[in-house]
């Protein structure tokens, strides 16, 4: 339907980036 | 200017911290007092109360006294990186603390705040700090993301 995939929007890419930081082991 | 954008976005981020000292402008932050308070909130086991007590918070009219504070902060962050994270920032241009203390230089302050950000996103409570960033405006998030990515490429 031409809508961008969630991961491809700016919002989605930002969320992916910060979620990947969250999933890294602390310290 | 990209460096100044980093500075102002990171000041917006720093405004989410409940700090005793003013922290809304490069001038507010140029004496290092609010930055030191932020670090002691972020990593209290490393930036301890005795460490914070060594940061002069009164009679800072002489810019050299501000620079003395800023040097202690930079030294503390670099020690944190090495001792706690086991990394050095190869190739990352360190902030010119003289320019921050004397002129409240936004570009150099941006570099210092970038290093503070790096402590926040790697500390034991990083989840809290990262989620705060994720709740901020998209353009601020984007600049913070770029600032983090720049640091990631310079870590060794």
What does this protein structure show overall?
The complex is a heterodimer of chains A (27) and B (156). Chain A has 27 residues and is an all-alpha fold. The radius of gyration of chain A is 12 Å and the shape is rod-shaped. The N and C termini of chain A lie far apart (43 Å). The mean pLDDT of chain A is 77. The radius of gyration of chain B is 14 Å and the shape is globular. In chain B, helix 1 packs across helix 7, helix 5 packs antiparallel against helix 6 and helix 5 runs parallel beside helix 7. By secondary structure, chain B is an all-alpha fold. Chain B has nine helices and no strands. Chains A and B meet through helix 1 of A and helix 8 and helix 9 of B.
Provide a concise account of the structure shown.
The complex is a heterodimer of chains A (27) and B (156). Chain A is an all-alpha fold and 27 residues long.
Runs of chain B in which pLDDT lies below 50 for 5 or more consecutive residues are none
Biggest chain-to-chain interface with counts? A-B, 10 and 17 residues
Count of runs of 4 or more consecutive helical residues of chain A: 1
What's the gyration radius of chain B in Å? 14 Å
The gross shape of chain B turns out to be: globular
Helical amount of chain A: 40-55%
Class based on secondary structure composition and strand pairing of chain A: mainly alpha
Q: What is the helix fraction of residues of chain B, given as a range?
A: 55-70%
Number of strands of chain A: 0
């Amino acid at each position: 339907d031409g809508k961008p995939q969630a991961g491809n929007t700016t919002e989605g890419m930002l969320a992916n980036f910060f979620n990947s930081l969250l999933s890294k082991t602390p310290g | 200017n990209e460096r100044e954008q980093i500075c102002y976005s990171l000041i917006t981020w720093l405004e989410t911290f409940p700090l005793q000292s003013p922290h809304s402008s490069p001038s507010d932050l140029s004496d290092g007092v609010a930055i030191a308070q932020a670090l002691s909130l972020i990593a209290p086991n490393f930036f301890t109360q005795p460490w914070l007590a060594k940061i002069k918070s009164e009679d800072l009219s002489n810019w050299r006294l501000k620079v003395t504070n800023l040097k202690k902060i930079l030294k503390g962050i670099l020690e944190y990186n090495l001792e706690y994270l086991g990394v050095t920032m190869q190739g990352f241009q360190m902030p010119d603390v003289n320019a921050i203390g004397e002129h409240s230089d936004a570009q150099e302050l941006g570099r210092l705040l970038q290093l503070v950000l790096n402590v926040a996103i790697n500390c034991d409570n990083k989840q809290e700090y990262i989620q705060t960033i994720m709740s901020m405006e998209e353009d601020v998030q984007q600049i913070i993301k770029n600032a983090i990515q720049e640091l990631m490429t310079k870590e060794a």
